[in-house]
Amino acid sequence: MSTVWTGLWLLSVVGLVLGRAVSGDYVYDDLVLVVDNPGLSDPLDFGRLLAEPLYGVEQGYWRPLTAIVLAWGKALGGAPMLHGIALILHAAVALQVALLGRDLGLRPLVAAAAATLFAVHPSVVEPTAWIASINDPLSVLAALLALRAHLAWRHRGATGVPRAAVTWFVLALLAKENALAILPVLLVAGSFRVRPALVAYALALVAWGLARYAVLGSDLAGVGAEIEGLFAIRFEVTGRLLARLVWPGVATPFTAPTGTLLPALLGAGAAVGFALVAWRTRIESVRLAAVASLAVVLPVAARVEALGPYPVADRYVYLAIAVWAVAVGEGLAGSAVRRAWVVLGLVICVVAPVSATRVGVFASPEALSRAGLADHPDDPRLHCMAGEIAFTTFRTTGDRADLARAESAYRSAADLLGQALWNGPEATRVVEADVGLGLAYCALAGASRPDQASAAIAAFERLVAAYPSFGKAWLGLGVARVSSGRRFDARPAFERAVELMPRSFEARVNLGRLLALVGEPGRARAELEFASTLRPGDPLVADLLDALDR
Hints:
Elements: H1 3-18, H2 30-35, H3 46-51, H4 64-103, H5 108-120, H6 125-129, H7 135-155, H8 163-175, H9 182-188, H10 195-216, H11 231-243, H12 261-280, H13 284-302, H14 318-332, H15 337-359, H16 365-375, H17 380-397, H18 400-415, H19 425-446, H20 450-466, H21 471-483, H22 487-500, H23 505-517, H24 521-534, H25 539-549
């Protein structure tokens, strides 16, 4: 089976099983990462795309290659284009899996079968159907190209410097920091006794680290701070992620650790088992797969506190699944080939429909919210997210049934806040603040009498008193005061919101509009022009600036 036919086959399989992802919308983190990210507003501004953090300095993610792909995809076609790019990248990764299998001695047809299993694995749906995870197929594609280039260099006698491998390794890092996991795999692939190769990889790593430091201002940005009592959770996350290689978990990216003893013990045992396999096996593909699994999972467990509320996610094991698919192909090449092919065929027929169904989870914010609540009905964050979605719908439709759904979801979240969240009391305060903000906005939207508007304003005032650094609460307070006719009282609230959230489009627009109303056109123009840089071409800003000119 030629490389061209293998590629066409894998592209067809990806399109058939995962293709409806193209019709999906922006969901969850996509809104912050793509829709409202001013850093992606101009795909030709390569200086900004290369030199700015992806989510902002506070998040500690410098992924310039990902930023370029997101900016161009957003400009050329929005969500459908980005979904299409993700599917093409996934098909390209699957092709590299097949070619890696050939490099390790598999027959072309067997390698293609193993790559097909990877292409339809249920745990690859999240990294391919969710735009915010597009960096995973992008970085893994470069990482596998680095591995294949390293193996080719080794087969040529391992002389000199593996320039192609080093180049692909750097590109993988520029797509996502997790690509560091390929380095131990390269080490296990051998020939690191050649000093020029070792020096080349080390220099590449140092250069990337220095560039990252220059952008973020810290070598530990995004790593997170130590939280006491997380040893059990680290082992639990390790086990749950390793389990995703074989038996996929829930279809949503909303799995939080429980902190209980049994999953921690199972996770520790799984890590030891994978380490023993890596140490004892003589089958190179299995050894590489075991090392890849530990290399992607252990760093996640080590920095679990920096990964947000849901550290157990399919996107973290995407590279490991790719390498394990090659190891499965090794099993197909054994003596019982026909039996193995029957088993593989049955597996593909079972897992492909599961994957096709999972794609629908990421079709829209509502679909993702429903699926998340179905899997985790006691999670206050997910109820809060459902409230935000319903309130956003209400702002578009004006249907008070949507407002009632939003308020009901926020109250459900408030009722569930009594249970401790695994990532500490500060995380609980964040959710409490978001719930309070949602209920205050619902009260304001539902106010039909002056006394009801006063109650909503009082709710915002209590919120900013309890969370003085919560910029969205100050913004809401300003909006509430303006809606009740208290323009001059709204000004300090908007100014505080801008101070706390200088890159907030809503805060800048509200302040600029208010300044125009109170007779300060100069300052109003400055705020509105700044807002236009955050969201170029926005019609509201254009209308407000035109009004200032008249």
